Amino acid sequence: MPKRFWLLGLMTLAGVALLVVGWQGDVERAINAVKQSNSVTIEQREDQPGKNDLIVKPDTTPSGNAVEVQQDSNREDVDDVMQEGSGFFVEYRLERERSRGQQIEIAREIINNANADPEVRKKAQEQMYQISNALQKELEVESLIRAKGYKDSVVFLEGNTATVVIQAKDLTQEDAMKITDLVSRSTQVSAQNVVIIPKY
């Protein structure tokens, strides 16, 4: 049991480090978009020429059903893009594991340091637990999303926000609401703090 905990913790730390180092700009942009929005919208991203991603932000109105969708009229060959997208998901997971592994290793060094302040050691233990818990929830939600029929997804939990990247060529209003509900129920993150980014 302890070996499994440490392995999970190491994987979690590696994943967080991956996100911080490799995908920091995309995650921060998505999280900032959620904080600034009060409705579900899907926006066109034009930060990379030739690649148009969509960002979905949940609705905070009492009805909770409004989703605004923009479709891309200049689609590239879907098969080529889907293969390209698969590489993104593999790289993202590897980087997430590496990042979280680094965070857990740092926390472990603090915990094992006999000269460290007891309060600092306690905070490091809490951080290791939070990282491990977040990784477990992320993997669980990714599996649930695949079970719903999507080819692939990656989930990033940070504090009270969840960022979900879905491998899908189309995302309907119904899809956005289903994914938001699934993530919210599985992670206890408020629906208004869930960001969905379709990547195709």
TrEMBL record:
This is Stage III sporulation protein AH. Residues 60-72 have a biased composition (Polar residues). It comes from the Bacteria. Residues 43-56 have a biased composition (Basic and acidic residues). InterPro entries: SpoIIIAH (IPR024232), SpoIIIAH_sf (IPR038503). It holds the Pfam family SpoIIIAH. It comes from Desulforamulus ferrireducens. Residues 42-72 are annotated as: Disordered.
